[in-house]
Amino acid sequence: MISPLHLQPARLYQQTDVNNGKIWKIKNIEMAGDKSLRPCRRLLALLSWYCLVANLMKKLELYLFILSIGLCTFVQSEKTIDYTMTTRQLVWSITTLVLFVSIAIRLIKRPADVDLSVVKRLIFPVSVCFFLVSAVTLLWTHNIGEGFYEVLKIFLTIVYLFVAVIVLKDKETFMKAMVIFGLALAIYGIVNIIQENNLGLVRGPMANKNPFSSALFLFLPFCLYGILKGRVLSILTAVLLLCVIFTLRTRAVLLAVFIAAIVATFSNKKAFYVTIFCIVVIGAVLVFFVGADVYSTESLRNGRYDMWSQTLNMTIDHPFGVGIGSWEIYISKYIKNMNDFMISHVNQKEYFTRPHNGDLLVLAETSIIGLLLYLGIFVTALYYTFKSRSIYLYSFIIGYMAIEFFSFPRERPFHSMIITVLMALAILEYHRPVILKLPLRLRKPLFAYQHKMALAFAGIFVIGLLSVTIYDFAYRHKVELSLHRMYKAVAREDWDAVLDESDNYSILSDITPTSAPIAYYMAIANYRTGKKEKSFELFKEAERVNPYHVYVLMNLGHAYDKHGEFTKSVEIYERVVSLYPKFERARKSLRHTQNVQIINAMYFMNLFMKG
């Protein structure tokens, strides 16, 4: 018999629901202090610590999620060419992996804590189908490295959508944090505007004016949510955000603001008429202080209309798509059909890496099937918001679609994260947990085991592919750092430094942000340092990476000239002339090489006659 003197209290944490919240209570349990019962005490201690850690993990997931958005709003590296791109992609991918692993651990330990029924919502199958269609186009894409990179970004977005839906159960804390981030970004913009004399130089923490303006727009739905709740800080933040947006005068974002305002107030006649009146007043004020240039369509007529029409021609020529990541390669084939403004690309004054229309980009690269699936993601999200009557969501999702029609915000990590968060909130507003009631014949251990194994394989696949994504982003960040130093070396004509910095590329990243192959710069550096044979091989490699780049072709033709291969040189120059009919330098080189061919033919004919 155990003496009462040996009884010791043990503590066990119990979770209870109070007012839809979660409170942890400590229950004292009298336990014998006999050595034979020590394992039981240890087990209960482990359980109590697990309960604390599980609850802490759940809280930390939300704070880590908020932190990731904050970092992707402001973190930047001036040592890369685009100082916001690769750094933020690394932050985004790493935090997504950490959050997914944390959710997976919670799912293993406490399955009821994670609502997996959400993946049955239509938006997830549509997103996965878009990912698969994009991945299939890798089979015929010209640049496998860029295509693989784009596919990984799509995959990351889908996982992030799942993570956001699971993590954002405490919506109020997240909304307040987003309003604070929006306020900080608006103040950043105001300071930047005061410091710069030229509005074109105002870029905030977003690389240039256009993505900065659209980033300001993407904070407005969180402010509207707070305004509907009567929060003063949300009103102040919205006013500051709109002031900066109207000061920057980015036309696509102004249009998006007006569309979002009209859609948000459409169901209320009085508010709708007030909105129309405000739009007219704001438009008149802009004309008075800025002039009618704010509504000019010159840039649309001079540039974007040409790119759109030629992108449609590209789609007609390639009905299954040119392959994801290959638009920037193939567009050079269609420059000859563009106006003189666009042909300045030949003189390296303009570079085309996107058609300034996200929908057309998807159409050209992944075919009409890819476009329908991509639009299906937005349509599904809008359906959820309309059914749940979430004004703050559907009005700004439509506004984002307007921006994407004139730009390509999806390329930026921050913009992709925020639109994904808005879609996650749309799912949460609409979704109700589904309790699966299996028939008796399926309630067998074998079925349960198979179900768990399927989840385990899915989790391992996601974690593995996220790890590959992080590696790819980290490698591209390393290449960007090297390219930044390489450009500086080219400017000071330090060709040895160019060779050192450009030797870090591989098939994962073999093209610069301006569509020029990295091998092209290596070829020039080798030529300048006297390594002409290696330079010749590198020009061939550059031509394989981008067979339509004007200066790659011109230098390759020149290299064939130097090696006496005039027939191939003429073929190269004829390709340049067919791609760029108004490029006079190519015509001169072609005529010169043809004259050399004629002279050589006459010389050998004379030798033959004399012999």
Automatic annotation (TrEMBL):
GO terms for cellular component: membrane
Compartments where found: Membrane
Membrane topology listed for this record: Multi-pass membrane protein
InterPro entries: O-antigen_ligase-rel_domated, TPR-like_helical_dom_sf, TPR_rpt, WaaL-like
Keywords (A to Z) from UniProt: Membrane, Transmembrane, Transmembrane helix
Transmembrane feature ranges: 60-77, 89-109, 121-141, 147-167, 174-191, 211-228, 235-266, 272-295, 360-384, 391-408, 414-432, 453-474
Keyword Transmembrane helix: yes
Domain O-antigen ligase-related: 237-375
Transmembrane recorded as keyword: yes
Protein name: O-antigen ligase-related domain-containing protein
